Amino acid sequence: MAFSVVLQKAFLLALLSLRAYQNEVFDEPIQLVPEVQNVSTSSKPQQVNLQWTVPNLAHHQELKMMLQIEISRIKTSNVIQVVNYTTTVKWNQVMHWNWKPDIPLECVKYFLRIRGMVDDDKFLLQSSWSNWSSWQEAHIPVSLEPNTVLVFPEDPLVEEGSNITICSVYGRNQHNVSCYLQEKPIPGEQLDSHVSIFNLNNVVFFRDTGTNFFCNSIDTKLEDGIVLFVSKVLEEPKNFSCETQDFKTLNCIWEPGVDTALAWKQQPPQNYTLFESFSGRRKLCNKSSCDWQITDDSQEIYNFTLIAKNYLRTRSVSVSFHLTHRVYLKAPHNVSLEIINTTKAHMTWKVHSRGNDYTLLCQIELLCEKEVIHEHNVSVHMSGDYLFNDLDPDTEYKASVRCADATHFWKWSNWAEKTFSTPEAAPSEALDVWRIVRSKNGSRIVTLFWKPLSKSRANGKILFYNIVAENQDKPAKSKHCSIPAPASDTQLTLDQSSYKLHITANNSVGMSPETILVLSRESGNQEVVEKRINGTKDGFLISWEPRSRDVISYIVDWCAHSQNQLCDLQWKNLGPNTTSTIISSDAFKPGVRYNFRIFEIPVQGPVYLVEKQTGYTQELAPLESPEVLTSNLTSHSFTLSWQGYASQFQAGFIQGYRVYLKSKEMHCHSGWDKVLLSDNSVCCNYDIKDPKQKIFTVENLRPESDYEFSVRSYTSVGENQNATFMMVTTPDEHSHMLLKTMLPMSLCVLLIMVVCYWKSQWVKETCYPDIPNPSKSSILSPIKYMQNPHLTIMNVKDCIPDVLEVINKAEGTKTLYTGAGKLHAENVTKLPPVPTEKDSCGPVPCIFFENFTYDQLAFDSDSHGHVPGPLKDILCQLGPLTPPKNLLNVLGNSNMKSLTGSPTEETSLIYVSQLASPTCGDKDSLTTNLPRPVHCSEYKMQMAVPPSLASPALSKNSDLSSMILLGKGEPG
Amino acid sequence: MDLRAGDSWGMLACLCTVLWHLPAVPALNRTGDPGPGPSIQKTYDLTRYLEHQLRSLAGTYLNYLGPPFNEPDFNPPRLGAESLPRATVNLEVWRSLNDKLRLTQNYEAYSHLLCYLRGLNRQAATAELRRSLAHFCTSLQGLLGSIAGVMAALGYPLPQPLPGTEPAWAPGPAHSDFLQKMDDFWLLKELQTWLWRSAKDFNRLKKKIQPPAAAVTLRLEAHGF
Questions:
Q1: What is the pLDDT of residue A802?
Q2: Using CA atoms, how far apart are residues B116 and B120, in angstroms rounded to an integer?
Q3: Residues A833-879 pLDDT 10s
Q4: Cβ neighbours of A922 (radius 10 Å)
Q5: Of the candidates A169, A288, A182, A302, which has an alpha carbon nearest to the alpha carbon of residue A237?
Q6: In 3D, which of A327, A333, A307, A328 has the Cα closest to residue A318?
Q7: Which of A182, A226, A263 sits opposite B67 (nearest CB)?
Q8: Residue A728 has what pLDDT?
Q9: Interchain CB distance below 8 Å, A155 and B69
């Protein structure tokens, strides 16, 4: 090998020596000068392509050369860049070199030249830079009108964050050109008189349709523009991984990152290629995943390279793995469960395994109500099984299993799930039962309460509760009842015998262990002293003294709603060695008294009430004020009582009562304190410190004084604030004496006055008659008068109005009022018609009423030979008189009854006092209307006028006095 | 005013004459061919609807192009849009157009614009924009059909596209994206102007084809009243 190298070098040396000799011969030095073949430019993308060769190379010669390219802008002397690079040149081969100009080729001219130097170990002579090639111009000429402006490069594509130079070329007539990126003006740099450049640094992405860069001439007319397409930076794919489920396909996935696609096909979305180096295969993938077919079963190791590429950048990421280390198993299948009994189930499943040689790890989970209650891992080959123990009866479970390669764990498979339920079993726990015993009519009413069994204890749906009341004294009288669920209480009526109650809960499978309650003759409600306890927000601390040693348990019970009729009995069952407990409940409210009873359940014998305790979680001031009754009011004292005040239902323990008394004097006696109330009024206060005292006598009061009082209960927190003051006035000191004497006297005087008034007629007639007849004073014969009561009334219907006859026979008058008092025609003295006006007085124009008293006297005196004028009341109907309105109404409604109707119609009598007759009272007016003077008596007998008198017929034909009286409308 | 017997006979005769000639009044004759009137009205309505539709579409598309194309006062030179049919015309020239020419110009303009618009649709980058453009193209196709219907109703032949003058949406390699954006802008602007002009055209045509109600009176008067 070394020999051949030496031989090759010797050959080259000989060759070059020969060339040197030839050059010497031709007097020209031998140089490897690169020769530029062509300089081409492209606008999009902006690029200069330099094509060159080394013409002096020997036939098929290859040499490694260092090249140097000098680039000038605008003029050759303005070198802007020198590029060195190394390449291998071949004989007769055109070499290419590309360069991206910073300023677009349309705006400026570039000049390039190249020189080379052999940089090859094979070349033994000392090498040096060759001469420069000639300058080559690189430029894209544009046709420019004098008035136009052009912008370059055309639609460049750059990456976000990069820099770019944009240039504008304008004709000779354009001098002031403004350029904008979107709406933002961009300051330009004048490169020469008609070229400006604009450097945009760190360009940002706005939209996939590019960012518009445009130039306006001075008259703001748009001249030209370009679209700067800014691509987002291509990101490296993340989380690239491959795995297999079936050893036939490898599924590779990754997170692609941002999409770098641009509109109008300026840049399509980046593409992804998967390359496997061992097999040398390559596959174009979609955006985020690729399925790689495993074609060679013997290949175990894979080395994947994922290449992401867009127009501007390429990113790649690699991963290498052993195939068996990337096994993502399919979920187990054929999962089945066999229910063995109420607490056991057997699960079996199969796995997708490559064979018995492969060991898989399977994870088993048991879920109950979405909570994992059991988890276990097992190793399997082709199939697995597992036994679930300690299951709860009547419960739904979900068994899940998933597997993974045990040797090289990569990833768990998906879960395979199966739901199953265990069958029911008999309830496993005895019921927690308590009772309330009440006596009624010689029998006991036992209300049993029980707490429903928890689901884990019920072991199925409870269908009913069995209660057997076993009569200890008379077994034949035992009772049995079955209460359907979901009841939680029942009531039994038992006699006074001792009973043993057996309570069980039953489901479809069986019954629970029984709970036994013993009811002896004694109800267990022994009288014990109630103890006060103080509760807290968290509850009550209940402690008690144990009574005996042989105790099964203690029970503390209380009512959740102590102020309501519904007790809502609560109880707590405590162990035999317990002497204290904390009773807490969310139902406890401040200001509510809770009464606790502690019972002892002995091994033998009846339930024994150990203690009663009562208390509040938080005492409050009373909300209810006592209802106070006042009694025994005297001029110096009165008594207050509030016996009905239920102190046990107040918001705290009542510690006493405060009596407030207000008076004008504001003098407080001993034992009273002067206090200032919340309304700034001052009053006296007496504190009753005994809560049981519900009566109080306020003393030392002044007679005839106003007092205001109020009674307020108070607890340790304070007194109730909503009590109101009540007023009481003390009586006069002598008023009671006055009452005792004056009342009987007043009654006596009143009685006398009534009697006097009642007998006034009699008194008057007897003592002061109008026409005194001393010889016939009826006062001397009262008995005779009393024997004939009908004499006071004259029957109108019996009157014969047109003729009045006076019979001189004294005995004839005696028969005048007999029987019903009818007037016999033969007893009536016919008088000539009273001269009246024809139109105004009809056939019955006048009626006169005889004064009985006077008549009686007259009859008695046998002086009926003439009728003296004043003794007769002759009432004439006044024709033109218009009845008052109310009278007309009455007339309209009244029945037309003739005057011959029975005077004894008591149901429709109107009593008219003749004394009140306006005929008499307004005598003058009447007389003016009357054709002749009519004399009225000074007083008249009370008479009964039936309403039929007030008839229209009457208005025409009856007497005037009746009309006017009815018109007044105020009879008797 | 007193009526004589002769007057009543005269009025009866007039009434009979009117009833005799009533079927001859075109406005009242519903049994015959309705003529091009309804289709002109429909075409007019369609132009107004498209005007409204284009307003929304142009807003979206110009935002898609970015500033300065979406600025309200942007008025670029009509550099590459010379091939677009111009809607603007001298008022006197427009007035002097006959119906056939008026309709022909409309038909030709929309034929070209529709073709350009379809190219625009193909180039659009977002699916939503493509959907909107496709919907508008369908509507514009409908307008073209309506114009063709009106022309057929009036007995005018449809203009035949000359061979080689078929407009093509082919932005050549020299056509920069900026100029393309300007073309898009002009396409939308020209379309808007054409729709506005078409509304005027069809309104004018409508008035011309459908004589006003006063014509009925004149016709009646001509029959001896």
A1: 61
A2: 6
A3: 444 434 433 343 334 443 443 444 333 444 343 444 433 343 333 33
A4: 11
A5: A288
A6: A307
A7: A182
A8: 87
A9: no
Q: Which residues pair with A117 in a beta bridge?
A: A66
- The pLDDT of residue A741 is 79
The pLDDT score that the predictor gives to residue A438 is 82
pLDDT for res A800: 55
Q: Rg for chain A (alpha carbons), in Å? A: 68
Interface test with B, best of A211, A214, A267 (most B CBs within 10 A): A214
- Which pLDDT does position A938 carry in this prediction? 40
User: Min CA distance, A205 vs chain B (Å)?
Assistant: 12
pLDDT of residue A377: 94
Contact between A196 and A167 under an 8 Å Cβ cutoff? The reply is yes
Parallel, antiparallel, or unpaired: how do β-strands A164-170 and A79-90 relate?
unpaired
Question: Comparing C-alpha atoms, which of B159, B190, B213, B197 is closest to residue B44?
Answer: B197
**What spatial distance separates the first Cα and last Cα of chain A, rounded to whole Å?**
170
pTM of the model: 0.56
**Amino acid code (one letter) for A584:** S
Helix/strand/coil for A3:
helix
User: How far B126 CA lies from chain A's nearest CA (Å)?
Assistant: 9
CB atoms within 10 A of CB A205: 19
Separation CA A857–CA A862 (nearest Å): 9
Other C-beta atoms within 10 Å of A660: how many? 20
Query: Is-contact B104 B156, C-beta < 8 A?
Result: yes
Single out the residue of A558, A437, A450, A551 nearest to residue A494, CA to CA: A437
Q: Which two tokens stand for residue A303?
A: 């080395």
SS3 state at B120:
helix
pLDDT at A27: 43
What DSSP element (H or E) covers A443?
strand A443-451
Which tokens sit at A779?
Answer: 């006062």
- Cα separation, A3 vs A11, in Å, equals 12
Assess contact for A836 and A931: CB atoms under 8 A.
Answer: yes
CA–CA dist B12, B18 (Å, integer): 10
- The three-state secondary structure class of A803 is coil
Q: Tell me, what's the pLDDT at A340?
A: 93
Alpha carbon distance A664, A656 (integer Å): 27
Query: What integer pLDDT is reported at residue A318 of this predicted model?
Result: 95
Q: A41 near A154, Cβ under 8 Å?
A: no
Q: How far apart are CA A914 and CA A845, in angstroms?
A: 19
Could you read off the pLDDT of A306-322 as tens digits, one per residue?
999 999 999 999 999 99
Question: What would the two tokens of residue A840 be?
Answer: 């105004």
- Other C-beta atoms lying within 10 Å of the C-beta of residue A287: 16
Give the chain A residue whose CA is nearest to the CA of B173: A44
Tokens of A139: 């430029």
Both tokens of A10, joined, read 């010797």
**Interface mutation target, options A150, A206, A212, chain B, most CBs of B under 10 Å:** A212
The secondary structure of residue A15, as a DSSP letter, is H
Alpha-carbon Rg of chain B, whole angstroms?
A: 25
The answer to whether the Cβ–Cβ distance between A212 and B71 falls below 8 Å is: no
CB-based contact B69 A206, cutoff 8 Å: no
Alpha-carbon gap, residue A119 to A128, rounded angstroms = 9
Average pLDDT over residues B112-121: 86
Interface of A with B (CB under 8 A): 151, 154-155, 180, 182-183, 206-212, 214, 221-227, 229, 263-264, 266
For residue A552, what pLDDT is reported? 86
Spans of chain A below 70 pLDDT = 1-31, 123-126, 219-220, 522-526, 562-565, 735-739, 767-972
Q: What share of chain B is helix, strand, coil (3-state, %, to 5)?
A: 70, 0, 30
Those residues whose C-beta lies under 8 Å from the C-beta of residue B125, and which sit 6 or more positions away, are A208, A209, A263, A264, B64
Mutate to test the interface with A, among B177, B181, B185 (most CBs of A within 10 A): B177
